[in-house]
């Protein structure tokens, strides 16, 4: 569906697959350090935008039918210099094995329509009226989704109907767009207009995963496809990839039907949908994320004081602060790892043993856990790079407060903390290791936020 709506997406997927094949041929087994080539090639994250708590709750119902649950809270309102008045979560599987089999996520943003920094009282009233009058998800879809969740699946005709209705809900609407209302919202924020100025939601972008994002960037430009100015997130450097790097081709002009101020209906164009691609690295611990945030601030400070190219400055900051090996990340407690017996090992160990001792004598090996989530600043940077204008924001006003708990109540489901999910993977791997060795393992590494003993 999305490939038919945005043909450049098909080009992006084709190029991504070639990049991954070439990287695997060049790097061999090391290329699959953060996921098999089958998983990486299949992997996608999509993005949608909804306008109200009711719509956010309904889309959660739809995704839950597919085993996708809200993970992480992202506030993009202050993550960009441009006006991006949304708060977000991502729906995905939360079980590591399920996610490996079904590596799909949907980054879902809700318009903060009640934030006075962006919308005056009259605009808030009109937004509420407009959004309340539309139906994004028909009741038949919601009922089938609830049934699928309760029964852990659907059979036959009901399964097909669920898929058809869900897909249709995210198709680009042919219903005319109110030109005056859309342009009024666009003057505040192009993102707000894309959410509250149209009669339906749609896939905003669909993102493949690549193993070499610089290669992808160069190949897309060589095909004449305009890319945004730079890769968002951590720089390319000689050490391990961490967290998430993202880039995209620029939003394309798409013909839409408008209802104009004089009552006439006719064609026009919008530029809101773009083609994003990502390269995933190792998940960082809270300690690692604190270091990452400090490095980002340091990069901004250096650029402000001395200028230079962001990627060059960031690379130097990374080299000055971040260990350039996985072993260094583990030793300093900066990244998450799973643990298993090293190949060929079948040792006899005492009734109680420390994890560090098992690592030191090479009885056990550490494997990095891939980062499955998102970065607010990077997401906002992608949005900003594809906006038609900066929009407006009244910084003198006090913003409406949103946090993970607030959005959980809106959705009607607990939003998982990504750190807790990664820690659970660590703990589960140590439990499996302890069972294999018939021992108690004392976790004396830094990866022991939840439990010291298994």
TrEMBL record:
Cofactor(s) the protein requires to work: Fe(2+)
Enzyme class: oxidoreductase
Residue ranges the record marks as coiled coil: none
CDD domains: VOC_YdcJ_like
EC number from the UniProt entry: 1.13.11.93
Alphabetically ordered keywords of this record: Dioxygenase, Iron, Oxidoreductase
An example Gene Ontology molecular-function term: dioxygenase activity
Stored PANTHER family: 2-OXOADIPATE DIOXYGENASE_DECARBOXYLASE (PTHR39479:SF2), PTHR39479
Family according to the record: Belongs to the 2-oxoadipate dioxygenase/decarboxylase family.
Protein name: 2-oxoadipate dioxygenase/decarboxylase
Organism: Corynebacterium glutamicum
